[in-house]
Write a structure and sequence with these properties.
- The chain is an alpha+beta fold.
- It has a single domain (2-171), classed as Glutaredoxin (3-Layer(aba) Sandwich).
- Helices cover 32% and strands 27% of the residues.
- A nine-stranded mixed sheet has the order 1-2-9-8-5-6-7-3-4.
């Protein structure tokens, strides 16, 4: 328990010192990227997935809960956003507390019912990832670059159908020289 409390305090202090600026409605781009924790999630196929092992240019982790109405409203727009993101080497994953589901079939059926039948989902065992990131409410989105750094967040519901938001996310992709691609 002491370890969890220490982690929470550490990440709260870290996140308070990381300055950000706002992009389109709700997108906060960190002025100073923050290292993501080396924590594994459990995939739909019950395989361990270390978030730091993602090879995509960007990884968008959307923390959600089945009892969160704004989360459910996002699902259909996310389903349309997902194939566009894949084409641009942007990985999109849904992350929910493992304790909400009796099994993965139940979660997939739930996502299908709310309009997201193809987006990959991962379960956060014992909420280790969400606790280490200081996430207290959903929906909450973390955008990670290929170096394993948190570079942007969206707190609350996002308009995944917004062209402006998509362009802003694509602009976060860094070239090999380290400059932002516009």
């Amino acid at each position: 328990m002491k370890k969890i409390i220490s982690l929470i305090v550490f990440f709260l202090l870290t996140s308070l010192s990381a300055q950000a600026y706002s992009g389109p409605k709700g997108l906060y781009i960190l002025e100073y990227p923050v290292n993501m924790p080396d924590i594994s999630l459990v995939s739909e196929n019950n395989e361990q997935f270390s978030i730091l092992s993602s090879k995509a240019q960007l990884t968008i982790l959307i923390f959600w809960s089945q009892s969160c109405f704004p989360c459910l409203r996002e699902m259909k727009r996310l389903e349309k956003f997902y194939p566009k993101a894949l084409k641009d080497d942007i990985k999109v994953v849904l992350v929910s507390p493992a304790s909400e589901w009796s099994n993965n079939t139940e979660e997939r059926q739930f996502l299908t019912k709310y309009g997201a039948p193809t987006i990959p989902f991962y379960n956060d065992k014992e909420n280790k990832l969400s606790l280490s990131l200081g996430i207290g409410s959903t929906p909450y989105t973390v955008i990670m670059d290929k170096q394993g750094k948190k570079i942007a967040t969206i707190q609350g519901e996002a308009d995944w159908s917004s062209n402006q938001l998509y362009k802003q996310i694509k602009a976060l992709k860094k070239s090999d020289e380290g400059t932002i691609i516009k």
